[in-house]
DNA sequence: CATTGCTGTCGATACGCATCGACACCCCCG
DNA sequence: CGGGGGTGTCGATGCGTATCGACAGCAATG
């Protein structure tokens, strides 16, 4: 192993000088700097992470807690991980992974063992039991998702209320007469996840504002049969015909089954009715047919979270007065939207 | 911050005794052990990771290099990450993430900075430029995927050759007359990925062995249009009718488009022909209709890799003489298989 | 009783780096 | 020509843990 002492010896300077060359925390003469950098290059010196962390009280590591819990919707988790990792690297930090199923102890472990300088907590639930613990840690914590009580922690999330509103707004403005919201399956509803409530509220509000007919049906699960059942309920209740129907499907897993069920009934999305999904663009592009969607913007959300995080780490002031930052979803029209009339 | 010295003071022992209680590397009297453990509990002591790493030359961290490169197939990466992380935690290790786009430097960084004790390298290509670098690192490296020259490194992967053989074996044994292999898109073929070649070879071999008609067509890309084009080529060439046709689709991204294209032509998978996909079970279950598939077994592959890894770290002998460990795929019949005749 | 061999504990040290205080040197100004 | 204020470098120290050698106490042995 090459140490900074080896570099110092080769460059003919002291070890501390090497350290100052690398950190830039003291001025160094151009000549010395050159010699040291040359020595670093020659020896291929890389500072020992443990020693650095021990001496500086900074691990240069970000803890990322991901939802691997069984049953959690893992669709679209990857873009978050990807973006967060890349943002971290841009700031010369590394990412250490923890899984949701470790619960609150996972958080204290990361923090108390000085494994990381900050924590990003993904997929935060309404009354997430980790929140009070997170609030008491010695490292800053950024939440992706908005709990009922953020306990002063910084939160970033998609603006689900706005997403719900945008979905119905779009349908209303393209002359649809009625909206059916194909809700989340019962088990998701039972978990009382925050963003579900927010989305539904936004959709309802918009429907009310536009004076447009609005019903909400909950499928038993996200299977093909679940979609069938929900559609049965939705369509028989109102009759299949008459007017322009808009279907809003906020659960990504339900989109493909729903589209398929519609086709089986001879109802072609984009010809006989509109379908708007809430899912990643990738999911929307690859569904058959490609579905008009509101993007979950995982990259934007992640980037915003990381910006806050590094501002906190660098003791810069965090500009927003608010503790909750919401990202605006993006609507992309694809093949499942009825043409304007 | 609570240190082992604090624990020692409270327990009335020396710091080194605390360390020995925790590591179990020297015998400790029951009475002393009790007092120390009580003190640890009381203070909520967690050893400082950096200090521990510095002193013991062990970071208790596994480096995981994931394929986030643009264009890489990210489908199914998550189960690998999940399983690897969980295996690591079972052995009291953490996982640090690196992205493929850091290339070989990412590997030397992880190793030379002593950020981790071992590295898992995912999605290794045939002539992956990282292999020679990996072979020279001071930490063990486990590959997921098999390069042309493993350079003495341990590799774990699905047995793609067997998968190809199993696909055609299944079709042959269920009285199919001919097999069309809807290959990988041209850009994947161009990258000359190892597992693609292996799968195709297995399929060819089996077809030859069974004396069954076999053609292979390559779609331009994984879009719907790409699937259409490939199907056009495959079906016109042989005519749509006559005998029992089996379609093998090894690219997960191509499966849904292909199924859809078939349905559009009035060809119902499971009634008019058979379709076998190579994809995760999850993908197979959620396709419409659910496709008979050979599983990629990400959990098995990951677990095998981690077992080797920890054996290496614990200086246990690694049992296999061979450096390459292949996992047997699992065939699951679903709705796209023709009933036996 | 002297010796040997354990068992259980302690003190000291090393790990590699960051940082603080000291200080030698030089330049500029009085 | 003397003093003051930078500038650039160094030595020393500390971060918190693991581990080595030492050794006190005790039991078993000849």
Describe what you observe in this structure:
The structure is a homodimer of 341-residue chains. The first copy, chain A, is elongated, with a radius of gyration of 26 Å. The first copy, chain A, has helices spanning 4-11, 15-23, 30-43, 49-56, 77-90, 103-112, 130-135, 160-173, 186-191, 194-210, 224-238, 252-264, 281-286, 298-313, and strands at 61-66, 94-99, 118-121, 141-144, 154-158, 178-182, 213-217, 245-249, 274-278, 292-294, 324-327, 331-332. In chain A, helix 1 packs across helix 2 (15-23) and helix 5 (77-90) packs parallel to helix 14 (298-313). Chain A has 3 domains: 4-47, Orthogonal Bundle (434 Repressor (Amino-terminal Domain)); 61-158 and 299-327, Rossmann fold; 160-296, Rossmann fold (3-Layer(aba) Sandwich). Chain A contains 14 helices and 12 strands. Chain A has a 6-stranded parallel beta sheet with strand order 2-1-3-4-5-11, with helices on both faces. Helices cover 46% and strands 16% of the residues of chain A. At the A-B interface, helix 4, helix 5, strand 2, helix 6 and helix 12 of A face helix 4, helix 5, strand 2, helix 6 and helix 12 of B. Strand 2 (94-99) of chain A pairs antiparallel with strand 2 (94-99) of chain B, so a sheet runs across the interface. Chain A binds a DNA duplex (30 and 30 nucleotides) through helix 2 and helix 4. Chains A, B: Residues 3-46 form the HTH cro/C1-type domain. Chains A, B: Residues 2-56 form the HTH lacI-type domain. Chains A, B: GO terms for molecular function: DNA binding. Chains A, B: Pfam families: LacI (PF00356), Peripla_BP_3 (PF13377).
């Amino acid at each position: 192993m090459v140490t900074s002492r080896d570099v110092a010896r080769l460059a003919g300077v002291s070890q501390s000088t090497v350290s100052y060359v690398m950190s830039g925390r003291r001025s160094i003469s151009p000549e010395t700097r050159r010699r040291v950098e040359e020595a670093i290059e020659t020896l291929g010196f890389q500072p020992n992470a443990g020693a650095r962390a021990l001496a500086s009280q900074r691990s240069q590591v970000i803890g990322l807690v991901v939802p691997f819990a069984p049953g959690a919707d893992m669709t679209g988790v990857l873009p978050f991980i990807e973006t967060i990792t890349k943002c971290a690297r841009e700031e010369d930090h590394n990412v250490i992974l923890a899984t949701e199923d470790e619960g609150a102890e996972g958080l204290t472990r990361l923090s108390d063992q000085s494994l990381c300088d900050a924590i990003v907590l993904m997929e935060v639930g309404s009354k997430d039991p980790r929140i009070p613990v997170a609030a008491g840690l010695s490292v800053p914590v950024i939440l992706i998702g908005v709990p009922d009580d953020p306990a002063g922690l910084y939160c970033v999330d998609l603006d689900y209320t706005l997403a719900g509103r945008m979905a119905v707004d779009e349908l209303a403005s393209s002359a649809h007469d009625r909206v059916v919201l194909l809700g989340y399956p019962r088990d998701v509803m039972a978990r009382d996840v925050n963003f579900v409530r927010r989305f539904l509220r936004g959709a309802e509000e918009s429907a009310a504002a536009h004076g447009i007919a609005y019903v909400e049906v909950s499928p038993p699960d996200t299977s093909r049969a679940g979609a069938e059942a929900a559609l049965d309920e939705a369509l028989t209740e109102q009759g299949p015909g008459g007017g322009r129907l808009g279907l809003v499907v906020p659960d990504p897993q339900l989109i493909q089954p729903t589209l398929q069920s519609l086709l089986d009934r001879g109802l072609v999305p984009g010809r006989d009715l509109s379908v708007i999904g809430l899912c990643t663009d990738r999911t929307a592009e690859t569904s058959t047919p490609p579905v008009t969607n509101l993007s979950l913007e995982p990259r934007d959300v992640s980037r915003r979270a990381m910006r806050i995080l590094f501002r906190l780490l660098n003791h810069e002031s965090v500009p927003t007065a608010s503790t909750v930052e919401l990202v605006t979803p993006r609507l992309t029209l694809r093949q499942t939207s009825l043409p304007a009339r």
